[in-house]
Specification:
Blueprint (H helix, E strand, L loop, with lengths): L1 E7 L2 E10 L1 H12 L8 E12 L1 H17 L2 E5 L3 H9 L7 E3 L2 H6 L1
Parallel strand pairs: 2-3, 3-4, 4-5
Antiparallel strand pairs: 1-2
Helix pairs in contact: 1-2
InterPro entries: Anti-sigma_ant (IPR003658), STAS_dom (IPR002645), STAS_dom_sf (IPR036513)
Family: Belongs to the anti-sigma-factor antagonist family.
GO molecular function, one term: anti-sigma factor antagonist activity
Length: about 110
């Protein structure tokens, strides 16, 4: 799994490339745990190249959701592949998290 970051004024975009499993979720958790991430108004997660997400990967996002909400940071997923989106839907996480089709939609939120 490769995670790349792009920062603009008040928005951080994380692009996930590969499989988010138990081992790579530790790296993602480290990134999301950094205090400076809360200085953003939005954290956008580009899932275009995310091929797989395990329960450990989902757990990382769930564990940071309340922290982000308390800090007023919007967490928005976009460009999600259908098979990854289905995992979010099956677990009901699509109602807890904001998932939009495109980067333009994510930026507009």
């Amino acid at each position: 799994m490769k995670i790349t970051q792009q920062s603009t004024e008040n928005t951080l975009t994380l692009s996930l490339d590969g499989e988010l499993d138990a081992s790579s979720s530790v790296v993602l958790d480290t990134e999301l745990s950094k205090p400076e991430i809360l200085h953003n108004h939005k954290v956008l997660v580009n899932c275009q190249k995310l091929n797989y997400i395990s329960s450990a990967g989902l757990g990382v996002f769930i564990s940071h959701l309340q922290r982000f909400q308390d800090a007023g940071v919007k967490l928005v997923f976009f460009n999600m592949q259908e098979k990854v989106h289905n995992v979010f839907e099956i677990l009901g996480l699509d109602s807890l998290m904001t998932i939009v089709p495109s980067e333009a939609d994510a930026t507009a939120i």
